[in-house]
Amino acid sequence: MPKSKIRKSSKPVYTPPAGPVPAAVKFGNPGWLVPTMVTLFILGLLWIVVFYLAGSSVPVMKDLSNLQNVAVGFGFIGVGFALATRWR
Questions:
Q1: Cβ neighbours for 70, distance < 8 A, ≥ 6 positions apart
Q2: Domain boundaries in the chain?
């Protein structure tokens, strides 16, 4: 098999400038993201569980229909999942 030709580089090798890393390049989560996400997951789950166990005696829940109460619980969980997409 013939040997390929070796190219000679006419450009110098790039070296990044020394200094602090810009804020746009830094990775990480804001401090509020994970606690808020977990709180919304738990709040949505608790809303649905409390609705099924004692929904007829809780003032706010008895004013809403069955579908609306489940939608509120899943709404909290959905917002938690939306925040989870920002988690790195």
A1: 48, 51
A2: 33-84
